[in-house]
Design a protein that fits this description.
It contains 11 helices and no strands. With 211 residues, it is an all-alpha fold.
């Protein structure tokens, strides 16, 4: 990918989001379609069109574009973010939150595998074995880390996260990050207040409704 393309992409996105933020949805769509003429199938351009249609209240048209993009590019976080925006504007908070969580952790299998590799580098342990690629599920003690628990929390796998954190504390009762994270998980399971990431998503939804 050459420097010229990257520069054009940066300029396109900046101009498009200025138009969207200003409420000039038709201008954003025209701008995006010109880019598609030059780069057929450009994902950025189609996302801009979907965003403009969403802001214009043309939800069915936006949904059609985003569904097709998700089919072609599963795991692309920004697609899930824009689908979350779509459901938020429709007033469907449950679906909006589900897609925002998928944007935070777009692919369960990929996310868990990468989290394991990160921990392997940090702790000098073997990388995640193939047998863990279908997680969530029972996690061996060597792979029970706060990073992995946090990933599960973002994906909504709270019971699995609780099991991981409980295992960490069973081996090291003084592990402060695990204690704090476990308290948040217990709160989300009805033993206290809501998890911070849920609070943040709720604030995000509130701000979207005001736009």
């Amino acid at each position: 990918m050459d420097a010229r393309y990257l520069k054009e992409r940066e300029e396109f996105l900046a101009a498009s989001f200025r138009a969207l933020d200003g409420g000039f949805c038709e201008d954003a769509i025209r701008h995006a379609r010109k880019r598609i003429e030059r780069y057929p199938g450009d994902v950025d351009a189609w996302l801009v069109i979907a965003a403009a249609l969403t802001k214009s209240g043309k939800f069915s048209d936006a949904e059609e574009i985003l569904s097709e993009l998700e089919r072609i590019l599963p795991g692309w976080g920004q697609i899930y973010e824009f689908r979350g925006d779509l459901y938020a504007r429709r007033g469907n908070e449950k679906e909006a939150l589900r897609y925002y969580r998928r944007a935070l952790a777009p692919d369960d299998v990929l996310g868990v595998r990468i989290a394991g590799k990160m921990e392997a580098l940090e702790r000098d342990v073997p990388p995640v074995p193939d047998g863990m690629k279908d997680a969530p599920g029972p996690v061996p003690p060597d792979f029970q880390t706060v990073t992995l628990a946090d990933l599960y929390i973002k994906q909504g796998h709270l019971v699995q996260a609780k099991d991981i954190l409980t295992g960490i504390l069973a081996r090291d009762p003084s592990h402060a990050p695990a204690k704090e994270c476990l308290a948040e998980v217990k709160a989300s399971l009805g033993e206290g207040g809501p998890v911070p990431v849920v609070n943040e998503l709720q604030r995000w939804l509130g701000s979207l409704k005001k736009r």
